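Dear colleague,

Following up on Tuesday's group meeting, I ran the structure prediction for the two-component complex that the binding team flagged. I've pasted the input sequences exactly as they went in, so you can double-check that nothing got truncated or mislabelled along the way. The structure tokens for the whole assembly follow below. Feel free to forward this to whoever is handling the docking comparison.

Inputs:
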Amino acid sequence: MDEFQEILQDFLIESFELIEQLDQDLVELESRPDDLDLLNRIFRVAHTIKGASSFLNFDVLTHLTHHMENLLNMARHGDLVIDADVMDVILESIDLMKALLVRIRDSGADAGLEVGQCVERLDAVANGTPLSSVTETVTVTASETVVAVEPQTDAEEEADYSGMSEAEVEAEIERLIAQRQAEDAAKRANKANSSAPVEEEPDYEGMDDAEVEAEIERLLAKRQAEDAAKRAQKAAETSTAPSVAAPVAAPITSEPMPQSEPIPAPVPVAPAAPAVQPKVEAKPATPVARRAAEPKEEGENRGGGAVEQTIRVDVKRLDHLMNLIGELVLGKNRLIKINDDVEERYEGEAFLEELNQVVSIVSLVTTDLQIAVMKTRMLPIGKVFNKFPRMIRDLSRELNKKIELEITGEETELDKSIVEEIGDPLVHIIRNSCDHGIETPDVRLSSGKEETGTIHLKAYHEGNHIVIQIIDDGKGLDAEMLKLKSIEKGIITEKEAEGMSEKEAFGLIFRPGFSTAAQVTSVSGRGVGMDVVKTNIEKLNGMIDIDSEVGKGTSMKLKIPLTLAIIQALLVGVQEEYYAIPLASVLETVRISKDEIYTVESRSVMRLRDEVLSLVHIGDIFEVERVFDNSEHAYVVVLGLAESKIGLIVDSLVGQEEIVIKSLGEYLKGIEGIAGATIRGDGGVTLIVDVAALMQMAKSVKSTVGQESAEAKGRLGVKNKPSDYKVMIVDDSKTDRTIMRKSLEPMGITLVEATDGIEALNILKQADHTFDAMLIDIEMPRMDGYSLAAEIKKYNKYKNLPLIAVTSRTGKADRMRGVESGMVEYITKPYSSEYLMNVVKRNIKFNEGL
Amino acid sequence: MSEKLQQIINKQHKSLSGDDIKIDEVIQLVGFIVGDEEFSVPILSIQEIIKPISWTRVPQTPPYILGVFNLRGSVIPLIDLRSRFGLEMIKHTEETRFIVMKNGDDVAGFVIDRLTEAIRLPKRDVGPAPETISEGESMIDGVGKQADRIITILKVGKLLERNF
């Protein structure tokens, strides 16, 4: 049974490939119905699939494809003109064929789908009968055609048989059955011979000649014995794989010559295979090599003479190769870093130059190698684009619109994994364009446009990105209307709508649940499609840009990174931590001063040129403990993903680096906001920001940007009881310290004493305590109050620590000096206990309730 | 040289096959201290033991997950066993080690206070986990009894199971 499975796999792979091309060809055919090349190509597909499926006992599929072939053959000989109606029937049958193939792939059998009606229609069209009278004519057509057609199950040309006498036909049948049996034997491990006649039943049915059947029965029985012997012999002389490949190869490759006479019966199957030219390479036993022959064949089928030098490789192998390259890139990064360090330490030494050279060669080659391997994973986007002409055709008929699709740049290549992901979003966008964008012909005419609408599908490279653009010349998006609809559906509030720019309004179409369609049609209107687009594009770290003008049309631009495994990233720092942000999502970075940050409805925003950008601090997203945060300036990384934008505030920008995405493993997977990790040049691990998730998180994170109190709270931790507050008293006089202590003790706060500036500074440095305020005497030995304050303010950590001067100096100059050195309050001795307590309370934000 | 090698291999083979029956009955464990208690895990579930290296904090995780570290190119989670067992975390000392444990494809590093020794324990000396702990939740596989002490054998699979 394994052998059978293997053949089945090959059959399916091949069939799906053929069909992919078929759709394209058929749509083309409609516009050029007399292109014989095209017709031949389409005919061959039907023929090939029929041939192979009859081998594999897929009766239903054989039955269907046989009738398709019949029809196409007529068209090929000029007996039938292909018009839109005929095309509809053909396309319907192709769809049915696809459905059958999918069913075979999933369940291994082609039962359960009704092809009868479709076959009837096919035959009706073939006979030039109007579709309405199908039922009457069917029986006639069936009996007429079947006799002529019966031998065709052997993948031979039918025309030659029609003229034969019955005796000749019988002889031919005998010969062909013999051939078939031999081939079947090779393929099927289980020798269900009884199934052979069954398989051809639909065709035999038409033959009322009982003799023929009896004859066949007899021959089958006879062959059975021979087959068993042959099988044993073959198994002995050839390895399984090639012998399996051969019978499949034979019918396929014999097809490209439609005018051929019946090929002399090649009874032993294995020898037949080498005779077929393109299959010679298919002999090697490894599955990979065998499959390699197929694209070659395709190339030939398309009429090209040049033989492509291609080989099929398992994607897993490429993935593995990519992983190895990833390791190499990390090694390279590390080497560069070490080289820099060495350069610093041994500046001017002779060996440095040599080291430099080696490092740069290694890094160059690594980069080239990486690009080369990336290229092996590249597929032309045409693979995805191919299915759209057919889709447009169906949609335009369904919607009664005239739509033309123009495709450019289908040869643009991008990573396989991305090609797989991009299909769905494009389908949704194009459906949307057809349904909502392009107007009906009369509307178009009345608005002075051409009757036929155009959708332009365009792909091109832009730096490290591929851009896919979908442009339609339809009615365009109306920002106001979008806002109204969104408010209606409760997606946004009126207030939100007011502040929306045109672009933001266009972005509304991506919100889940949004739909402008008055009613749900089979094409669109459920409000799901564009949401899918956004999710998929975000998954690929891509961006969406919409441009639209009412009445003129809409242009949607998808910008997607070329590859996913190794990316360029911007490294940013927050406190002691570093994070990598995929550069693909970074639009720009700006340095702003803190007072450029505004708060609107408890959210931080800034003005970026003519836009209002909402801000979020990376520390708030990733729970970074903020020990110090007081520089006048902040760096804002402007992130763009799909159609949304956000400003991410970071402490520092480290630079751009090539990083390899590594998973965090099973244990830590799915951490919100983290896409993975990478290993840096210094061997440390840096987390990679998941921009899409970050944008989601930013919505719920309470921003603390520029909010001093929240910052202070963060710094000081939670205060549950008065003793959680700590105040340091710095005074050289024991008496003064005692007075202060006595004044403050009633509050119940913790007091720490220091006798001069140096001691105070040491206590601070030890960091055993976190102080909420300091009371500082000015006149002190070793280090006075002013110097102490200045020293303390040098530490980022203590920039916001309230320093209160307690002194007998009352001169204005003294006060000024105090302010200059960073004191916030100035208490002159003598003072009342209450006054001191109040000042302290105010400065440490003492909570009386505790 | 090669002869000598062959001899050694033969010897090893012999000792292996000779010990066959014995090995079946003995489990080999690596013992370590976390807090005041001695724990152990089967030696075969240990990938390696390393001295502490720097790690990177991972946000949105429970406190016992210290973060991730780089083990020769692999990014591996680091879990503090003290914290995992509800003890207070302490500063790493000279004796602190990371034990990298694996169970199938799951790998993680665990911070322990110090290593004790490799232990060979006859199977009959291993008792079941105390019954007070509900079956599914228990991180304890069994309790080994040795002359003067009791060694808790941990379930590596459970340790490597994400529970947040």
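Residues 23 and 95 of chain A are 10 Å apart (CA to CA).

Cheers,
M.
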